[in-house]
Specification:
Radius of gyration: 15 Å
Structural class: alpha+beta
Bound molecules: FE2/S2 (inorganic) cluster
CATH topology: Glutaredoxin
Helix content: 10-25%
Strand order of the largest sheet: 2-1-3-4
Largest sheet: 4 strands, mixed
CATH architecture: 3-Layer(aba) Sandwich
CATH class: Alpha Beta
Number of helices: 2
Distance between the termini: 32 Å
Length: 133
């Protein structure tokens, strides 16, 4: 495996009035840049990589990102969360629970703290605005 952790940060942009919103409008370009810098400062950039990504279909939780191979999805991420994600999750192996997307499509219910568990539908077609580009 080329990278021990591969982080994909959605930098998709839509018009500001688009009903789904977009991660770029939530500051994801800055997130990606700071994530890369923070990995470099810790000399982790050879084994961990933060890439920009197109829409991850988690728009309502932007700014959204996913960490592979862990399949851990984060939403509502801000610049102030980056160090915690790196230290706790990428280095320490403990995902940052408060940032995990509280939806069973992205996070198994068994991995969410009770206060974040929701009863949202599992079927993508049941989600609002799912068919919009
Ligand atoms: S715009 Fe970021 S997940 Fe869709």
């Amino acid at each position: 495996m080329r990278y021990s952790k591969h982080i994909f940060i959605c930098t998709n942009e839509r018009a500001p009035d688009h009903p789904r919103g977009s991660c770029k409008n939530c500051g994801s370009e800055g997130l990606r840049a700071q994530f890369k810098q923070a990995l470099k400062e810790r000399r982790l950039h050879g084994t961990m990589r933060a890439n920009s990504a197109g829409c991850l279909d988690a728009c309502e939780y932007g700014a959204a990102m996913v960490v592979y191979p862990d399949n851990v999805w984060y939403g509502g991420v801000t610049l102030g969360d980056i160090d915690e994600i790196i230290e706790s999750h990428l280095i320490g192996g403990q995902p940052v629970q408060r940032l995990r997307i509280p939806n069973k499509r992205y996070t198994p219910e068994s991995e969410l703290p009770a206060e974040l568990q929701t009863e949202l539908p599992l079927e993508a077609e049941q989600l609002p605005n799912n068919n919009q580009p």
